[in-house]
Amino acid sequence: MSRVARAPGRVNLIGDHTDYTGGLVFPMAIDRATTIVFDAETATPMRDGSADDLRGVTLTSDNFDGVVSFTLPVNSPEKVTPSWGRYVAGVAAAMAERGMTPRGFSGRVSTDVPIGGGLSSSAALEVAAALAFGIDADSSTIAAVCRRAEHLATSVPCGIMDQLTSVAGVRDHALLIDCHTLDVTPIRLPDSLAVWVVEISTRTLDGSEYPARVAQCAAAEREIGPLRSADDAAVDRINDPLVRSRARHVVGENQRVRDFAAALSAGDAREAGRLMYASHFSLSRDFETSTKKMDDAVDAYSRVPGVHGVRMTGGGFGGCIVVLADDDAELSAPLCAEFGGIRVRAADGASLSSIA
Ligand code: GLA
Fold first, then answer.
1. For the segment 67-117, what is each residue's pLDDT rounded down to a tens digit?
2. CB 311 near ligand 1, within 6 Å
3. Do 144 and 184 contact (CB within 8 A), yes or no?
4. What CATH number does domain 2-186+347-355 carry, 3.90.930.60, 3.10.310.10, 2.40.50.140, 3.30.230.10?
């Protein structure tokens, strides 16, 4: 009997470049997902009665060419070809590091998460792969394994937001996540509001300045301690002006996440929108992860009637912007000649099911 592992992408409403310092984020899983339809390997009994431990993965993709094929245990996930298989191999390696035994499988992967668009297509693939490998653990452990997989497969020292959102998503809710404690608090999105994502450019964080930002935040923490509990006065004491700017973003962004969650819970879309613009401005000016094209798109969408807030979302350096608007706002029509846009809805996290 074939099985289906399904894991959604995510959009972050506010709280970017805070997760890797144990800060606050406010993402939601979206109604676009990566699916692996697979047959799990069953151990072949050997003549002496033991199980054959020659296990492996064979995977094709509806979205990419080539066949990913490797045996388990996998030693160098970062060298697997075609390169999309590195995320899958990374999960197997990360499970093994924790003493888990990934079960081999053969299958086919497909996705309707825009790839390289900043909606966590790689996290969705990792989480779906973890389920196909038969991982049996709680949400935060699955997310931690998948985060480690990304580190093993690429040069991106990402935080845990994307993977945890893909695992723990709740339909109609965004998730207030404390990336230090890994507490996840679902907060219902008002029916009167809609979330849109607009893909500005495809890109990969591999080879971007993302690791440099992680290093600059670490430098700030060496000077003033954990950014998640720092205040503006501590930030002002940082010597290096660049490191000070990076820290200013993180400390301000954590507060904006708290305020945004409160505004949304109170149904105050106007205040939520104001915080989104402030977040974008901070990411653009202090954290320097936006691009001119993203800034222009934020500006253009901010003028559309019914729009409350717009900001870049995710790692930046390209990717998507996210728009918070009234449910009935006409978003795609006025700007579709220049930018596309899709409406997304908050969805449940990853799941495993059987098909006959
Ligand atoms: C990427 C990373 C996340 C997070 C965001 C920025 O999506 O994978 O861990 O750091 O960038 O908020």
1. 999 999 999 999 999 999 999 999 999 999 999 999 999 999 999 998 877
2. no
3. no
4. 3.30.230.10
